[in-house]
Write a structure and sequence with these properties.
mainly beta; 2 helices; globular; 328 residues; disordered N terminus
Length: 328
């Protein structure tokens, strides 16, 4: 076993300075009951957001021959951006902006669906193993009705011996993504060799999440296993990641300034009230121009119908106050 010490770079902290709170994933179907299943860590009762990151689905590695892969028919979004990041496999993305793009490992695809957008996602025939994450970013009120947009970015690999970092949003370890965001954000894939330690310098105004993909990692006094998410609150200007398992360990580091606006989230919509959600649903069902059309999708159904609204009023999602936050 190697024991690689990495030159300082920098990161940030939990409810008590220097500690992490571990959030457990739950399994849900992606794109309907016949679709592949994913592990969801955001949102949940203990925490709805980390910065403006409001949704995190982690899937795979799934053998496509057994699961059938991904086939998510055209569906709508409002008030958010979607960030797609793969570890293995290939996904064909089409949207109502007219974008037709392949999502590949180590490449960011960021779609903005402020006022409204629709898109489809289908794993390609070349894909044997599908493994990645689907992330949502809430748009602040001033920009939540912004026009449709799409960015593709291939980040460089940086880092000292024993660590490899791909910074796809924001800045870390001397690497800065050119992709614009509407609130201060950080998104990076970090791989540590067996026994490696990585000290990261970060903006102390950010809160962070460390999503464990492969291997095991210790951060803020907590050891993470595959699928778990560590929440690190603002405060410290440095965090240390330690690979405590055998073989390499891979995590996603997500961060941003705390998002203080109240959000109402339901199905694929991010809004500010129950009434807005109901209106978006009605417009999608009616084929409104708000969402446009996705051309070229050849899946099993033309578009995903919206589920029925719940009988109860949809309430805003809130993060717990720092004093009431769960302890590790």
């Amino acid at each position: 076993m190697s024991n690689v010490e990495v030159d300082p770079v920098e990161l940030v902290c939990a409810h008590r300075p220097g500690t992490a709170t571990v959030l457990e994933p739950r399994e849900v179907p992606l794109g309907g009951p016949r679709a592949m299943r994913v592990r969801r860590t955001l949102p949940q009762r203990e925490r709805s957001l980390i910065g403006a990151w409001c949704f995190a689905d982690h899937y795979g590695p799934n053998e496509v021959s057994a699961t059938g892969g991904m086939d998510v028919a055209p569906h709508p979004h409002t008030g958010l951006q979607t960030a797609s990041w793969l570890f293995s496999g290939e996904i064909e993305h089409r949207d109502s902006l007219g974008t037709h793009c392949l999502i590949r490992p180590g490449e960011l695809n960021l779609m903005t669906g402020g006022h409204g957008i629709a898109h489809s996602e289908v794993s390609t025939r070349a894909t044997t193993t599908l493994h990645g994450v689907q992330l949502w970013i809430a748009l602040p009120d001033a920009h939540r009705n912004t026009a449709r947009d799409f960015h593709h970015h291939v980040p460089e690999v940086v880092g000292p011996p024993g660590a490899r970092l791909r910074v796809f949003l924001g800045s870390l370890a001397g690497s800065t993504s050119p992709v614009p965001t509407f609130t201060p954000l950080l998104g990076a894939e970090i791989t540590l060799d067996e026994g490696a330690r990585l000290a990261l310098d970060v903006d102390p105004s950010f809160e962070h999440g460390v999503l464990q993909d492969t291997g095991s990692t210790t951060v803020g006094g907590a050891e993470l296993r595959g699928g778990q998410l560590a929440y690190l609150a603002p405060g410290p200007a440095r965090w240390e990641l330690v690979n405590t398992g055998r073989g390499p360990a891979r995590v996603l580091l997500l961060g941003g300034t705390p998002f203080t606006e109240e959000l109402v989230m339901w199905w694929n919509f991010v809004a500010r009230s129950h009434e807005e959600i109901a209106a978006y649903r009605e417009e999608w069902q009616a084929g409104s121009a708000r969402f446009g059309r996705v051309e070229g999708y050849r899946g099993r159904t033309a578009r995903l119908p919206a589920p029925a609204l719940p009988h109860a009023r949809i309430r805003p999602r809130r993060n717990p106050p720092a004093s009431d936050a769960p302890r590790p």
